Amino acid sequence: MSLYSKLQQRAADKKPVRVALIGAGKFGSMYLAQIPRTPGVHLVGIADLSPDAARANLARVGWSLERTRAASLDQAVRTGATHIGEDWRALVSHPSIDVVVECTGNPIAAVEHCLEAFAQHKHVVNVTVEADAFCGPLLARKAADAGVIYSLAFGDQPALICDLVDWARTCGFPVVAAGRGHKWLPHFCQSTPETVWGYYGLTPEQAERGGLNPKMFNSFLDGSKPSIESSAVSNATGLSVPSNGLLYPPASVEDIPFVTRPRSEGGVLERKGMVEVISSLEADGRKIPYEIRMGVWVTVEAETDYIKNCFEEYNAHTDPSGRYFTLYKRWHLIGLEVGVSVASVALRGEPTGVAMGWNADVVATAKRDLKVGDMLDGEGGYTVWGKLLPASTSRAVGGLPLGLAHNVRVVRPVKLGQSLSWADVAVDETTQAYKARREMERLFPDPV
């Protein structure tokens, strides 16, 4: 039975999947826009640091005022309305909740939310992939120990890439490479919130008019977000990562199967079975026609002449040899697609992507020379960007994960381009996020 049919049945039985949402910002709002159009789902409550902002976002996406007048969570359950408040613990612990959607974008808070949800025996769809990047394998293990499901969020690129990889392997194809697209030039890794709009082609006035967050947008531009998402994919699929960071080979959609081959066969990969990100810009900054900037892709190999001939007979999108084929989606719809994860977790007991091991890490790397006393400002800021590395490399150097590099004081000088270690900073060791990361390092001692 399809997920949609299962949702329809839950609606007919008046037994909806009951959902809790933590964080009602842009991503959360996109999911909220779809809930009234999805049968068999009841959003019991929203927890947000600013309930008034959450209500404003609900009005923006078309919710009626009547749907949000529940005075309590119990009343929301009885009436089918939605409660809005600040108390995320009360929401997560409510016995009616089936699935918690973590949507804050704050990795340190997200770890706390996920762990408490597991303790309350709730499934979790984690939109905050920044948390998954530095302790996803541990979160997955904690969820399994609690007998619940932990999942990446469909609509975000990591889960969509995992879906393509699963499709390929289920069909019997070996995966040569998989990943996403991105607008990239090497100097973008030093971009700051002050330079980001120029690289994006917007004026500061246009950005302010649109209410755009420069730090958030800069986290995409400077390579942090692609590294974070690639780390999540690697840990979920077992695909390896480049030994010294993403390469961002420029390619049109047509050329992806050509460049995502091993170097020994004319491509850019160190070996088969890797994650990579395709740039939508040529090295000189020219835009590539028909690019994959907003999409995802997987490249597979025909291992026999028969399969290769089938590619040819059905006009499959291959490299010149005819052996490497790329399947792709040029777009992802972000929060508008999260309902797939909620339904899959609640109705099939299946995640839409989950860490199976610790293969990859994202290490904070200096955007400029850092001196003793400087304060790191985390993802998308002025001081560090996130570099994707094999977990074994990060572990060997004591790499500081990007997700824990916010509001942290530098205690040793660090040169531009140097990846930071635990010894370079004074970290708050009392947070659950820090403890979770250190526990993961102990439980996963020999990364692949």
Describe the structure.
The chain is an alpha/beta fold and 448 residues long. It folds into three domains: 3-155 and 337-348, NAD(P)-binding Rossmann-like Domain (Rossmann fold, 3-Layer(aba) Sandwich); 158-184 and 223-331, no CATH class; 360-443, Antifreeze-like/N-acetylneuraminic acid synthase C-terminal domain (Type Iii Antifreeze Protein Isoform Hplc 12, Alpha-Beta Complex), CATH 3.90.1210.10. Helix content is 37%, strand content 17%. It is built from 17 helices and 15 strands. It has helices spanning 3-12, 26-34, 51-61, 73-79, 88-93, 107-119, 129-146, 157-171, 196-200, 204-209, 214-221, 224-237, 256-259, 305-313, 338-348, 391-397, 432-443, and strands at 17-22, 41-47, 83-85, 99-102, 123-126, 150-152, 175-182, 274-279, 296-301, 324-329, 360-366, 375-377, 384-390, 406-410, 425-426. The strands form four sheets. A six-stranded parallel sheet has the order 3-2-1-4-5-6, sandwiched between helices. Helix 6 links the parallel strand 4 (99-102) and strand 5 (123-126). The chain is globular, with a radius of gyration of 22 Å. The mean pLDDT is 96.
